[in-house]
Structure formats: structure tokens, C-alpha cells
Amino acid sequence: MNFTPVGTSGAHEGYCLIKSAEKKLTAKGVPYLDLVLADNGGEISAKLWDYKESPTNQFKKFDFVKVRGTFVPFNDTMQFRVERIRQVLPEDNAMIEDYVPSACLTGDVMLAEVEKVIASFKDEELKTLVSAVIEEYRERILYWPAAKNLHHAVRSGLLMHTLSILRLAAGVCKIYKFVNYDLLCSGAILHDIAKIEEMDVSSTGIASEYTTKGNLLGHLVMGAIAVDRIGRANGVSDETLTLVEHMLISHHGTPEFGAAKLPMFIEAELLSELDLLDARLYEMHQAVDTVEEGAFTPRQWALENRNLYNHGRAGNGGVELINYNEEE
Amino acid sequence: MNFTPVGTSGAHEGYCLIKSAEKKLTAKGVPYLDLVLADNGGEISAKLWDYKESPTNQFKKFDFVKVRGTFVPFNDTMQFRVERIRQVLPEDNAMIEDYVPSACLTGDVMLAEVEKVIASFKDEELKTLVSAVIEEYRERILYWPAAKNLHHAVRSGLLMHTLSILRLAAGVCKIYKFVNYDLLCSGAILHDIAKIEEMDVSSTGIASEYTTKGNLLGHLVMGAIAVDRIGRANGVSDETLTLVEHMLISHHGTPEFGAAKLPMFIEAELLSELDLLDARLYEMHQAVDTVEEGAFTPRQWALENRNLYNHGRAGNGGVELINYNEEE
Amino acid sequence: MNFTPVGTSGAHEGYCLIKSAEKKLTAKGVPYLDLVLADNGGEISAKLWDYKESPTNQFKKFDFVKVRGTFVPFNDTMQFRVERIRQVLPEDNAMIEDYVPSACLTGDVMLAEVEKVIASFKDEELKTLVSAVIEEYRERILYWPAAKNLHHAVRSGLLMHTLSILRLAAGVCKIYKFVNYDLLCSGAILHDIAKIEEMDVSSTGIASEYTTKGNLLGHLVMGAIAVDRIGRANGVSDETLTLVEHMLISHHGTPEFGAAKLPMFIEAELLSELDLLDARLYEMHQAVDTVEEGAFTPRQWALENRNLYNHGRAGNGGVELINYNEEE
Amino acid sequence: MNFTPVGTSGAHEGYCLIKSAEKKLTAKGVPYLDLVLADNGGEISAKLWDYKESPTNQFKKFDFVKVRGTFVPFNDTMQFRVERIRQVLPEDNAMIEDYVPSACLTGDVMLAEVEKVIASFKDEELKTLVSAVIEEYRERILYWPAAKNLHHAVRSGLLMHTLSILRLAAGVCKIYKFVNYDLLCSGAILHDIAKIEEMDVSSTGIASEYTTKGNLLGHLVMGAIAVDRIGRANGVSDETLTLVEHMLISHHGTPEFGAAKLPMFIEAELLSELDLLDARLYEMHQAVDTVEEGAFTPRQWALENRNLYNHGRAGNGGVELINYNEEE
Amino acid sequence: MNFTPVGTSGAHEGYCLIKSAEKKLTAKGVPYLDLVLADNGGEISAKLWDYKESPTNQFKKFDFVKVRGTFVPFNDTMQFRVERIRQVLPEDNAMIEDYVPSACLTGDVMLAEVEKVIASFKDEELKTLVSAVIEEYRERILYWPAAKNLHHAVRSGLLMHTLSILRLAAGVCKIYKFVNYDLLCSGAILHDIAKIEEMDVSSTGIASEYTTKGNLLGHLVMGAIAVDRIGRANGVSDETLTLVEHMLISHHGTPEFGAAKLPMFIEAELLSELDLLDARLYEMHQAVDTVEEGAFTPRQWALENRNLYNHGRAGNGGVELINYNEEE
Amino acid sequence: MNFTPVGTSGAHEGYCLIKSAEKKLTAKGVPYLDLVLADNGGEISAKLWDYKESPTNQFKKFDFVKVRGTFVPFNDTMQFRVERIRQVLPEDNAMIEDYVPSACLTGDVMLAEVEKVIASFKDEELKTLVSAVIEEYRERILYWPAAKNLHHAVRSGLLMHTLSILRLAAGVCKIYKFVNYDLLCSGAILHDIAKIEEMDVSSTGIASEYTTKGNLLGHLVMGAIAVDRIGRANGVSDETLTLVEHMLISHHGTPEFGAAKLPMFIEAELLSELDLLDARLYEMHQAVDTVEEGAFTPRQWALENRNLYNHGRAGNGGVELINYNEEE
Asked: With DSSP H G I counted as helix, E B as strand and the rest as coil, what are the percentages for chain E, rounded to 5?
């Protein structure tokens, strides 16, 4: 743990993430909190003895907290005996991105790029519709991940995935002049928006569970319902809503992956292909990165059970998933 | 044709359906209408010479009209030379059911039975929701068919199909006490409601085409969107809406048949099974009815290419698809 | 264990099921029986020391026995030291249904209802055939389960499953008058009859293994062979046998589930759909019952890997799988 | 037509097959027979004027007849005016094999080889069983085809197919010593025996239709039922019957091709592979034979839509499907 | 036909494509050529009477010829009576692209762009390999189509398809820095190269048939064999050859589309996705272009039987498949 | 272990296989080798203390070595303390076949039979081609296994599998005279030849891993590439190479098993069927051999999850997989 010593008593303090929190009783019946804390330096089992529960004193999985305490040996390992613990406050200036796996750009920077794309739309209806939907979800979109376990399952992963598709779309539209850029980008920005209601995500940007609604309806249909509601409220025409809703419900490409319809026009097809391309590249890159040059990965369940090969000839050896920096 | 003679000039008149209507020009450039007319007695090619088009003088496929004219021989067959033609009026007291393939009960009778079921609901939210949706589509539901070509593709076929499922549901709930009757019946009544916006249907109750929206979204998703909109407007809770919307988007059972989700609770599963059962029985009965006792039908494309066997031991020899009469 | 104290020596006695029985030797080479006993109160490890094996002194898995003995502490738990043990006798008046998972009606009651249905047949050939088959299997059908692990894997589960289908069939035939009730019910009563030779089942009604014949032929084909043999012996016509045998070999609906033919007439199709419906409802209800209201079950292997949702709105809160009582 | 002139009146006579026969009326209402006749020299339309129907004067499709008559020009082609026609009699010494597509050995020769194999069995039960089944079907097996349209759809094709598998089996058993020769050959001889009740075949050995029983049960299950019946009547043990019946119901290899079970022991697997091998070779050889050296056939529906290549390097250029001669 | 009048005799001349050519005999036994000629103005039936065949006087399907002759009425249409006909010569300066469906850039322009990409490679082995392969096929690659009937089945369609993928690849590599640009582009340039030996193509750039080798091996495996041969001859390392050969044999993505292996590293996956994307866009654009705004296409066999929608909102209304011009 | 005592000091020596070898350090930091040794008598944990690594003193998995040392008790078992260890030398005359699972004939004997077949070819091109390929791989083919885990995963298993197919082919060609024996046998001999470059195999004939090239290209395509290279170098015609290469790339029968093309001529089809037949028989025999008579095996993953039945009626009770002996 990257905790820093405070004073001379051997106490340490630092910021960290709660990976699990359970209220227990000692043999004598005194309540305490049994915690696992994590930061970039690793993770540690921790105890908060004499825990007095109160509304302002609640801690749960994925909370971002500041702790102070002492390291104490326990059996063969070290434990952390918590003396003080509280939620991180804005004035702490602690960046959550430093404590959880995150996209390589911040949510603010990425959302600004997305909004520049919306502002460039020539189709006023689409501009109105997409702006209104983003407005409704603005707060959560900044940090939402794109998945629980699969591609872009990182803080702000949803924006990262959206942005990659927008950049691919720009390249594609330069080559194929008959593609409607505004329509394709509208689909790209909105296609996964209902993931915000499909998963429960803590404010740290880590998904814990699918919601009941998410399980029963799925983000494809939920997205179409949301677009319909917001679009009607903003006077968007039925024709335009139908096109956008079709893109949402068809973007998984085939029924076996949950698409309610096969893509039936060019921008819908493109969206489903670019979505797949970005997701696959993310997952393949992650898998390949875990094995040595010249070796094969274990079978990848989410990639048709393939063993992937690390040929050791990657474009560069960077650690980041996507090197946006040079793009700036 | 069941036309009746009028006067002594050889003229005949009667009610019939327009099966096709095309405006053409004679060799001399004079416009005329080239028609095919049909009633229970057969169909005939007809001409309306010197056709003067006007807003009140429009005729198209599936219009229900009253005609007067004369039978004239043409090549080897007879043609009908139209002298007068107009839309059927309410005061004519002509029953459209007598001229197009129709369900064996009238729309009014069937809708009354459906509404009796709704009135019996103990769950007030479901009663509110289902009533409001029916209210919105009341006029069209009375005569809407359930399909273009497949099961229940007859006038009022949608209500006929709905009612069969409701009756099956009542039987099932008596056997399995853990099934929620109100929820199952809500799903049954609403599951195909969006077929009313998925297909273009003339007032005679015959479907001509799928709408653009129907093609791009499908009645499963369109139904969920409608339920969401109407439910919110009537203050129905999110929990209840989610359950009903899930039943709608999952009622085709498997993704390959268009379900966006597999049924995930008992009433959703039951709805999809009863829907299939009623559709299959309708189609099998129709197919078997076309061949003689002891013979097999040709391969049935919509029934996994089966050849069906007419064993000649049907429950009774009645002509009707479903004999409701004894139920009364 | 629901054993009752006998005398003042601390001895207890009661009825129970043997869940496992193994003959072992003590360190000194003395034979003893190592048992696990179970009743509705739980299960317990038990020892019968100084076991003298003899033809009348054999005990094996799933035997229903009466025991007397003493509870003795062993490590952290209690063991039962068996002093006397014997098979339950008729004069004990102990109901096996109280000791193993059982259908909610007794075999006798259910078989009587089935036979009432047979007696109502108008088709004399079918009445003869079905009666003769039931006669041949009468003794075992009373307690046979419907499966080893899946739906209706309980004592008398085979009759319970059969009866549910018969009741569904009655409802269906009221709605669709063209269905041949006698034929459908004959299929329903005979469809799983060969499960009696497909599985080894102890007299307690619990299946232990598939038989060699069951593995190599399966109950669909075995059923057809049995119907053919019994039908010929009773002078049933070839035409009738062919129809019934077809229903048996097609009742799993599709080849991937073992059907040798797709159902090719209406009653065969109905049988396969009602069979599936009853099996699915049983399994879904069981799965949903194991999780809390508002929660999802783990993936259900036998139900296309679905996570099922307990919406907490079941028809009633009863524990029984099927509440037959109110039917009486 | 290979008819020979008789006398000097221009009359011709010969043996031929009736390919179609229909009773019609002339414009004047006089009955006549409208026929199509065929022999190895081609086929011709023929008329029998003034046809007086009587029990001994019936002619139908696939009858083998002797005709006398005259060739008369009609429009652009020749017709045959029938003067005399009767069924071929044994004393005619006309060989039906010369008039219909036939296996390259006669039924008698092939059945003798099959019976030599049976006689060689060391397993007495199998010898009894297989002999008894052959006995029951002896008359028809001599000329029965193996299919309506596919492999070995020729006179005596069933024996030809059976014999090829027996010869393959002999080779296989020399290589793999652990294979039970008697069991494998029993399966080979009986596997398609129920085709004799699955198809209607005229005495010429050409199949016209599937029987109702054939459609509803199929030759796999029908074969198992017949083996069970005949085996029980001859005291064959249940164990042996189970093995043979399993081979019959599994010999199509996979459920999608109608197998009720996957082959579960080595001889069953071998039977299904050798059956497939012989059928495929027959069909591929026939298809390839219809195109020139260096050319590809059209897509073969029954061979996974393959275009097959005629590489022009066949073992020899013989016309026969299988050159048995050198085997003698 | 865009033929131009010559002289005053009514004669016309022009360049055109032979769509079919057959040598026939007149009723008097005089040989003549029965032709169908085509240019951008349409097509016409033509006769060359008194045809004297000689080695320098051969004409066949897809030849590009200059003709002179006269239009003569025949039944209801016009025929062309050929007086002179010869192959087009370079000095004619007739551009074949004006007479057959062609890519929107010439082969020369496109090949130059491809070679610029090769020249930019940093990996010397790949530069050597790809250059050597292109060198071997240089002449034919200029005009080769990419298919017989499907995507890019136009003159120079192979280069057009290759170039689109290269342009997409450049965009993708800017976004995902870990992709090896040289490897991806090598795969893109070589992936369909063996189509040059898979199909017979006339010098006009229209494919007529698959070659025997093409049918038996396919362009995936043939490409790998060619790369291996040329690579070894140029000293390319086994490691590099293996990577490129893998990309070739896996570029159809899944076995059912002919891939011998699933793509196992990132560039191989990308190649297969970009290949599919370009092919799909081409086919969808072509299909949608044939129907009116607001209409759906018939089912597209090569696109999973989808009906595609023309939403009338294409990026621009241009006729060209891909508007390269603005790219220059 | 079948070690033999040497001298009177209790020392033993013998030949054995190294099943695993790891260099470790004692608590005091002294290097030692931790080994597992195996021969037909079993396997034992062994230690070589004070291990001084040197180029001539390297030991790894699957090495065939001679050891001397002492058995020492360790906990409940015996360990072997190695005193001397070295690779087996030719002059030792130790037969590796006695120490690893091996084919029942030696590589030399089997290769001689294969070469007799080649020598019998009438087609000179095929004789040249097949001889040249065998020549290139002669050394390794003698001991190569046919797989890592599946069928014929034994020393010299590749030749054993090849030889079985050749023997089957001889039988088949006697029955079907139109089959080209030379072509079929060429395919049989070469079909798996590239397994020699697909797997890493120690000189003992046990496969450890797939090579990178093997993973990325597979033995089907690698075989075609090798045949192309060697054939061209030996002047074999393109036509002949195409036929042989097609047989190699299609021999897995269907795409899902890695075939790049479906078999398109008779010998290609036969090769794929005989290949499957031999592989299946090997695997089924092995599986069935592990269970008692009358029992079923566990589900066999590589055989469509079947439970196989040991009917206890095998041709003979021999242990060998294939009893070649009687063939001699």
C-alpha cells in the first residue's frame, strides 16, 4: 500500500478503495468492520475495531476513502488496524483515476470531444436529440464503465469506447462518401447509453451488478425506450426516432448476441461493425499483453475460444491500452 | 359473383371487395379503371370506362364497395362492365365479415370478453395499464388481423388469437396455482398490440404491407415502447412496467425468432409457450384441412418443413377453425 | 432426526431412509456398517457395529428402514449408534411419502384420476390399448419418479407429470374442438411409460441409475416397442398403433432432444408442447423458489442457461409445487 | 423402343415398363388408356383405344407388360397404337432387370452371399435372429430398392447396399481384431430391412411412395420393433435384442439424420460409418459420371451442396457402379 | 448502341463488348456467327453471315471489338448485320473502362497508391515480400475484378477493394497505436492476390468461371502457397512468412466462410474485419441504390436475407460507388 | 521401477524416462535436480544432489536416461537418490519402445510396408512425389506420434495411423473399382505428414507442445505448402499437385474441424472418411477398455459427449490396440 507515515508513532495514512466491507462481531460480541483496502500498491486486510454504525459512518464496496492506522503482523502477513476512516472529499484533491483502472483520458476531456462532434451535426433533429439524451445522463456518463468484466470495464470506459467508434467513423466517412456522418455518429454516441441504467456502478466507476431492469430489458431495448421518450419530449420526428431506435436495437449485429433486428441500413451496419471492432481490439490487446513475446494466450472464452499469439511486433511497447496522447 | 339482377336490362348489383385497382388508358387515351372484384361467390375482372378521377371517386385495393353493371363476354370468360360504383355506407347494412375471411366471432363480442378479463384483475396497476393501452387502440383492434400470411391472417384475427391465449391461460392458472393470473393475462392482451402499427391494414381487416417502422423496429420493441409511454402517463410503477415490457420483448421465445431476451420469469415463459401453441395449432389445422383423410400435406415451410398427416379422426368435422359456439 | 425416545436409557427409534450404506472393517478387522440415515428432520451418520451379514440382513441405498439406537457425540457432531435395524413392514403403517420428496397427491389418488379419463374414452381401441399397458406397469407406476435429476424427480413424479398433462389437455380440447381428446390423452398417459424400464428405481421412488437398455434405446423407442407388443396381443389395429407409436417417438419435439420424428399430426404436436410446458414450469418454479424476492437465480443449465427472476408476485405463497387440494 | 417387327403389316411387339397409365375418354365419350411405355431404347407415348376395363385387364404405373401395336406419326413425334397388351408371364423369360435400372448382380446371387455370411456366425443367437428376420422378408428383399431417389434407388438396390457394407465389414474386421464380426454383420444385414415396409414398391423394384407408417415411424424405429417382435418369438435374449435394436435406431449417426440415439458401442459406430461411406460413394460416383473429365458437377443437394470434380483418373472406365464380376 | 454513322449508305461503326458468341449454320448449312454486342448505350443481337473461321478470326464472350455494319429490322426489334469485325487495337485509343462496369479510378492510379504504401514500410522483409508478389502478378492485377458476382465484381475491382482496406487500415492505425501498420498492410495487399489464379478473367476484367485449381484449393490456401514460394526465393524468414500466411488463410474470419484458422493475432483479426466491412458496404450500397427512397430492397441472399432500407439520407447523391475524386 | 540391484551396497540401476525435471536449491542454497522417473514398473520421485550443471549434463522432460542410485524412504513413500545419470547411448541396446506407450509394430517395420505400397504405384508422378516427401521426413516419421492427447498419441503413432488407413484403402479399392488406388494411397500417406512440423516431439516420440507455426497454419495447410514445394522441385505437374493438395486441405471433412474445402472428388471423400474411422475406432476402443464389461464410460468429450458401452463381446480380449501380429 502506498500509505505515508504520519508522526513518529508508526501511524500511516493514505487514500484507497474499499474492495469489500462486512460488519462482524468479535467473540465478545463487539461490532467491528472487516475490510479489504486497495490502491496501486496492492491490497491489504484491515479491521476497524469498535465500529459504531451511524448514517454518516457507512462504508461499502467500492467506496473511495481516506484512512489512518497502523500495520500489525497477523499470522504470516500484515494487517492494517484502522484508526480513522472517512469518505474522500473534493478538497482532498485525490484523483480517483489513480486508484482504479481507468481510461487513459479523463471523462471531461472525452466528453468535450464527443460534444464537439455533436455540435458539428448539420442535421438539427439529430443534434437536438443527441444533446438532450447526453444532458439527461451527463453526470454519470463521465465515469461510467462499458462493462462489468469484458471490454472497457474501466472507469470512464463507456466514453472511451464511444470516442474510439466516433474516431473510426470519421475515417470511414472520408472513404465512403455515401455514409450519413450525423446519423452514424448519433448511433455511436447513443448505442450504449442505457448501460447507465443496466448496471449498478459506484461513484468510482466500477460496475458491481446488473440491475433488475437491466437483466429483464437489456441496454438495447432500454436505449430505444429512452430515445423515444426524450425525442418525443423534444419534438423530434417519428422518422428520425425510428432510424435511431433501429440503430440501437440492432447494434449487436445478430440475434444470438441480443440484437432484436439485423441492421437494415448502412449506418446501422457500420455501427455494429465498428462497435465489434473496437470491443475485439480492446480484448485481444489485453489478452495478448498478458503473455510473453512468442507465446500464445490461454483460450479466450469471449473470443470464440481462440488462443491468441503475441508476435512481439506491436506498433509500440506502450503500457496504455490506447495511446491518445499523440493524438492531442 | 353473388350479384342480384336489377330491372330487366340485364343489369346486376351487389357488394364486393376490390382485390386490385389500376388506372389505365385505352388505345385512344381515355382513362379507365381496371379492377378485380371479389365476393364469396368468386372473383371477376371488371372495367369502369370513362373514369373521371376526383377526390370522392377514388378506389383502391381492399376497398369494400357497392357496384352496379352488366356481365359481358370477353374471350373465353365473362367480364363485368361497371356502371356505378361507390364505397359501402353504414346504412347499407352490408356486413364486411361476409366478404373477407374473418374470425368466427365478431370483434365486438371478443373485445367484450377481453375487457371482462381486465375488469377481473385484482392488481390495480395492471388494470390501469392494460385498459389505457386498449383504449388507445380500441378502434383498430376490433378488426385487425394477426398477420399478413401466417396464423390468424383474417379479419379480427388479432383478437381471436388474443382470446385463445386468454382462455388457455385461465386453464393453466387453475392447474398451477403459483402463476400470477393478472400478469399472464396482461402479457397475453398486450403481446401483439403493436402489430397495429407494424402492418398497414385496410378497414376490411386485411393486411397489405409492413410499415417502415414495423420493419425497422418490430412489434416486440414497439410494444414495449408504447407500454412505457402509456404506463408512465398513467402513473404505473417502474417495477410493473419492467415486468410487462419484458414479457413483450421476450414472447417469441428465442433470439432466432426475434426475442430480444429469453423469458426470465414464469409468466413470460408461459406467454411465449401459449402464443406458440395457439399459432401452431391454427397453422397445422389449416394445413391438414387442405388434404384428404389419410394423406400428407406438402412440406410446411413455417412448421420446420414438416409433412403433416390428416388422420381423419378430428374431434368433429366442423368447418370453423375454432368452434366457439358451444362455449357461449 | 425425528426419532422418538424409547424407555429411559436414552435410546431413540424411528423410521428413515438409508442414503448410503457401506460395509467396512474396524482397525481390528471386525465388520461394521457405515450408514447415512435421513428423514424430514435432517440426516445423520450412523454405525452398526458387529455387523453380521446374512440374506435377511442386507441394507442398501434408498431402503426404508426402522432403527433403534443411541445418539453419541463424535468430534464436533453427533453420530447415531444403531442397535436394531430392519426393513419397514406394511404393518408399521409408516408412510414412505413422509420420508422422501413426493408428489403432493398419493399414487393411488392420481392413478384413479388417470383411469377415470381412460374410462371416458369413446374410442374402444384406445381404451383397450391404454388400459392394457397401464395394467402391465400398474404396480410400479404408483411410485415411479419422472426423472433422476430433472423435472418431477420425486416419488410418484411420473403420475404427477402425467396428470398435469391430462388436465392441460382437457382445457385445450374445450378450446380447440378439432382436437381428438382420446388420442391426445392416450399419448399423454403412455408417453413416458417406458421410463419404468429406463431407470432403476428403488421401492422408495428414487431413481438411482439408467438401465443398460434405457441408455441404449431410450424411453421413446422402448415405449413404441412396448405399445406395439401389447397392442398386437390385444388385437389393436395397425393404424391405431402407428398413431400412438408416432406420438411416443416424437414427443420430445426435435431430434436434438431425442425425437426420432418431428410431430406430424395435431395431437402429437400438442403432446410435445404440453409435455414441455409442464416440465418447464416445474423446473422454473423450483429454481425461482430457491432465491429471494427480487433476486435472480444462478444460470439454469437445463433452461438454456437462463437466470430466472423471482418477482415476488406468485399466485400464492404455498410451498407445494402444484396445489391440487383446491381441485378436489 | 427395342420392339421387333412382327409380320409384314408394320406391327411391332416387345416387353416394356409402364411409366404412367391413365384412363381417359375420347371426345365422343369412348374410354381409352393413355400410356407412357419405356424400355432400354427410350420411351414413347401410347394409346389403347376402345379400352374395356375388367379385373384381368388392369394396368398401372411400373407394370411390366408385353405389347403389340403400330407406330403412328402424331404432330412432330411418333406414337404407339397398342393393339394387344398383357402382363409379362414367367414363361416369357423376359428379365425385368433388362428393363429397369438394376443392381449389377441379381437378387438371388446377392442373397446367397448374405446367407453365407449368416451361416458363418459363431453367435447362435444372432444367427437365429438374423435368419428369422430374413425369412420373414425373403420374397421382397430380392428386388427391393434402397431408396426412392437417393443412393441405390435401383431394383435390388437394398441387397446391393447391404452386400457392400458386409464386404467392407469383412475388411475392417481383419484390421481391427477387437471388432465383433457377427454383431457388426447382423447390424449390416438388418439396418435397412424395414425399408420394406417404409416404401411402396412395385414388383419391378421401383419405389413410388412412402407408406403412412413409413412416414410416421421411419425405418429405424420400425426395424427395431420388427427385430423385437421376431426375436422374442424365437427366444432371443433381451441383451442381444437390445444390442441389435440399438444398432438399428442409431445407424444414421446423428439426430439431425434421424438417429434416435448416437452409436454407443464400436460395432454401432462402425455400422453407421460404413453405411454412410457406401451411400456417399454411390452418390458421388453417379454424380461425377454425368459430367465430362475436367468438369465439375452442379451443386449436389444431398452432398452438402458440393460441386464434385471429375478428375478423369478413375480406377477404370467401366459403366457399372460396382464391378462385382472380378470378385467372383 | 452508341455506334456512329459512316458514309451515307446507312452503315454504322463503333466499339463494343461481345456478351455472347456462337457459331451456327443457316438452314442451307452456311456457317454464321450469332452474337450479342453491348456498350453503354445498350445491347443488340447481331449476325455475321458467311463466317469464315480462321485463327485470326476468332471471337468469344467478353472480347472487346470494333464492328461496322447496318441496323436491320427483325420482328419487333432491330438487329445488327455485321460487315466488319476485329479485336480492338492499342492504336484505337478506345478505353475499355468505358464499355464495362469498372472501378472509379484506373488500375494504374490505384496500383501507384498501393506501391506508395509498400515503399513506406519500415519492415524490410515485408517490403521485399510484398513487392516480389506484386511484381509477379503486376500485369493482371491492374484489371482483375474481385469476384464473379458479389462485391467489387467490376474491372479493377480487386485493386479497388485492396485500396479501400489500406485506407481504412491507415485510419485504424492512427487510433490504435499498438497495431503493426506494415503487417496489417501486407495482409491487406496480399489477402486476395490468389484470386488472380482462382478465376478465369478476360482481358476486359470480367470474370467468367472459377478455375479447377481455384475450386479445389481456393484463394486463401493458394495465396499462402504463393507467398511461401516467393518468400523463400527472396530469403524472407520463416517467422515472417508464417505471420503473413496465417493472415491469408484466416481472413474469411470463420470456418463456415472458408477460413482454415480463426485469426489469432490482432492484425489478422483487423484484416478480416476490414475485409468484411468493405465488402458489406459495397454490397449494401449497391442494393439500396436500386430501390426508391423510403422503400426496402428484396431479401439480399448474400447479406443474411436482409431487406435493406433506403432512408434517402445518404451523404451525397453521387452515382459512384466510392467517390475517390475529392480524396485526391 | 524395474531397476536391477548392482553390487551389494544396495545400489540399483536401470533405464527410464524423465517425466519432469526441475533445478532447485536446498535450504542451504546448494543446487539439486528434482526429478520424476518412469518405466513400465511405475514412477518415482528422485533427487540428484549437488547438481553441477554443464552443457553435457543437461536433463529435461522426456529424456531417455540410464540412472544408478539408492532407494531411500521419505515420509510414507520411497524416493530414489540418484548417484549417476546420463543419456542412453546406442550401444546400451535399450529399446525406447519398452519405456513409452508405443505402436505395436516398430517404425521400421511399418515404414517398410508403406514404402512397399509406394513402390507398387503405377502413376509415376505420384510415386515420385510421395517418395520425395517421405525422404525429406524419413528420420522423424519413424517415431512421430499422431497427436498430443487424442488418437494414436503414442510413439510411432503417425505411421500406425497411416498404415491402418492404407490397409482400409486396399479393402475399399477391391470393392469399388472406380476408385484410384494410387491417388487414395498418396493422400493417405501424406495427409498428416505436416504433423511433423506442427508439434514439438522429443526423440522418445512423445509430443509436448504445438509449434508456433503449427498453431498459426495447421498441418492441413502446412502439408499443402510442403507438397507444393517438394513437388515443384521434382517436376510434378500442376494438375497432380492440385489433386494431392486438395486431399490434404480437405481431409478433416468439414470446416468446423478445420477443412479449408469440403472433399470434392471421390478419393478425397474416402480419405476423410477412412481417417475419421480409424481415429474414432482408436479412441472408442481405448475408452471402452477402461471400464468393466456391462458398464458405460464417462462422457467422451472428443466423441460428441457420448457414454460408450462395453458390451463384453469384443472380437478377442487382447490388450493391444490393433493386433497386427496375426497379419504377418
From this structure: 40, 20, 35
